[in-house]
Structures are given as C-alpha cells and as structure tokens.
C-alpha cells in the first residue's frame, strides 16, 4: 500500500520540499501557519488540514521544515500525542542535538520513528533535488523503513551520521563554519574598500586564488547587486550560531571565532537586517569601516 505523506512548514525550504513530494508521489497533505502558502500548493494538487491532529491521523510519513527549536518541539510533541506505532517523522529543521535526542526518545516510547535530517543547499538545492542531507541514523535504518525514495526527491548527497542528534550536530558545525567565513569575507571586502580595490577586482582575484570559499562565490551576486532578498534569513543565522554556542557551552570548550561572528550577526539584526539574506551582514561590516566624509 502506498504511504501517505504529510508536511508541516511551507517556508523558503519547506514549500519546494512539499512541492517535490507532490510531484513525485502524486499527493501531499500540508499544514502551515500561513494559510496562503497552503492555498498556493493546493492549486498544484495538495490537500490542506487545519490542525496537526488531523495531519498525524491521516498520514504515514510526516516531514517538517520549521525555523528552529521553539517551533519544532511543540509541533512534534503534538504529533506524538496523536500518533500511532509505525509512523515516521522526518525532521528537516535545524535544532539542537539534545532536543533531537529527546524527541526521538519520546517517539520511541510510542513506537514512532523520529529522524533528525537537517539539510544544506538552499531552496535551489531543493528544487533541483540536490540537497546535502545529514541524517541522524544509520543507512540500514533508513533503508529498512524505505525512506530513500523520499530523500532522493529533495536530495543528492546523503550522510548517515549514526545516532539521533548527530545529524543536527554536524549541521550546526557546518553552519558555524559557513557563517563565520561570511564574516571574514565581509572584513576582507572592507579591507579592499579601504585600500581602493574595486569590488570586481576583489572577486576576480579572490575567487580564483587561495582565499576563495564556497560562500564567497555563492553569495557574490547578491553582494554585488545588493540583492538581500532572503535565501537564508539572517535571523536564522543567529539561531544556528546560538545553537553552536550552546553546544560549546555544554562541552565547556572555548570558541572565539564563533562568539565574534555571532556578535556581527546580532549587530546586523539591530541594523534591521534580520529578515534579509544572511549576506546582508557583509554590507553592515563594510559600512562600519567607511570613513565619515
């Protein structure tokens, strides 16, 4: 019997995920805080529910793509209250490793499978089924539950990290590295500005030299065109860096770069960039280093 799919969270990542499931499997049932997103997807053939109870009772597999721990925890707990043995929750959100373990343990008590599966690659990665997916489970577990066809609908690279929470752990490390690098990119551009090196020359040289990095190249057009429409909102960067900071605090280990980077993004938040693309922090850094006329 074909399994029924439900999906929660139709944001920049969740909408194309649900859309891909709909195109591949012919059906998806959606729930979202903003009804308009549901209505848009309904035009493509999705069905809508008005509450989580109905969503959980009507589907075998539930996918989630929510902003962070504050949204994920109550949603998953409500799903578990209304769930039954054998159901599967695939959580593509980025939350703390500890919360992922806690939710998995609660799910296990009811015979429900909860998997943390954070992703990297942005909305374009979803649309092209090219995401990198970091899975807090073994390959055997995922194949036993026949989940690869669903993951292949949105992703291309699959990392099986083992125990619950490990997918979140490596995702948080990855995001810390990417966002800290973006701060370095901003400071490098500010240096170029101060030294009279124009933006095109900076990018032409650095993207073909040892200073190049994926995020520099990936965000280049946004920075050059000052296009800060969100691919990944700066508010979410702060959330992810705070998760990374909490991990370090729990491990009682120092991380100087993380704390510096976090303060830069918080400064950008105070400058009104929270809902803008993460790359807007670069403009904030460059503006800080401009001399008064």
Tell me what the structure shows.
By secondary structure, the chain is of the alpha/beta class. It has two domains: 5-162, Rossmann fold, CATH 3.40.50; 169-288, N-(1-d-carboxylethyl)-l-norvaline Dehydrogenase, domain 2 (Orthogonal Bundle). 55% of the residues lie in helices and 12% in strands. β4, α4 (69-81) and β5 (88-91) form a beta-alpha-beta unit. The chain is globular, with a radius of gyration of 20 Å.
Q: Into which percent range does the helicity of residues fall?
A: 55-70%
Low-confidence stretches: none
**Tally of domains:** 2
- How many separate helices? 15
What global shape is seen? globular
What is the CATH T-level topology of the largest domain?
A: Rossmann fold
CATH class of the largest domain: Alpha Beta
Short description:
By secondary structure, the protein is of the alpha/beta class. It has helices at residues 14-25, 35-42, 52-58, 69-81, 97-109, 122-127, 139-144, 148-151, 166-194, 199-206, 214-218, 220-225, 234-251, 256-273, 280-288, and strands at residues 5-8, 29-31, 47-48, 61-64, 88-91, 113-116, 119-120, 131-135, 155-160. The chain is built from 15 helices and 9 strands.
């Amino acid at each position: 019997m074909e399994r029924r799919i439900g999906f929660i969270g139709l944001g920049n990542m969740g909408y194309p995920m649900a859309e891909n499931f709909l195109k591949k499997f012919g059906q998806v049932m959606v729930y979202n805080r903003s009804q308009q997103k549901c209505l848009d997807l309904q035009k493509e053939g999705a069905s809508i529910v008005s509450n989580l109870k109905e969503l959980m009772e009507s589907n075998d597999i539930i996918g989630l793509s929510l902003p962070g721990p504050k949204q994920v925890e109550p949603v998953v707990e409500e799903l578990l209250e209304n769930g039954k043995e054998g159901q599967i929750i695939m959580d593509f959100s980025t939350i703390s490793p500890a919360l992922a373990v806690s939710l998995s343990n609660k799910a296990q008590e009811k015979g429900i499978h909860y998997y943390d599966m954070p992703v990297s690659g942005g909305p374009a990665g979803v649309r092209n089924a090219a995401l990198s997916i970091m899975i807090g489970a073994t390959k055997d577990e995922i194949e036993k539950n026949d989940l690869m066809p669903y993951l292949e609908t949105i992703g291309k690279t699959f990392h099986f990290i083992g125990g619950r929470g490990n997918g979140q752990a490596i995702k948080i490390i990855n995001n810390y590295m990417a966002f800290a690098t973006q701060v370095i990119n901003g400071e490098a551009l500010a240096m170029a500005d101060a030294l009279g090196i124009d933006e095109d020359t900076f990018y032409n040289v650095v993207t073909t030299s040892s200073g190049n990095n994926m995020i520099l190249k990936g965000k280049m057009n946004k920075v050059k065109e000052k296009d800060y429409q969100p691919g990944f909102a700066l508010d979410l960067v702060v959330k992810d860096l705070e998760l990374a900071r909490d991990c370090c605090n729990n491990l009682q280990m120092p991380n100087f770069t993380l704390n510096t980077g976090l303060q830069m993004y918080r400064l950008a938040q105070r400058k009104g960039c929270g809902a803008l693309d993460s790359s807007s922090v670069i403009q904030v850094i460059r503006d800080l280093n401009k001399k008064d006329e």
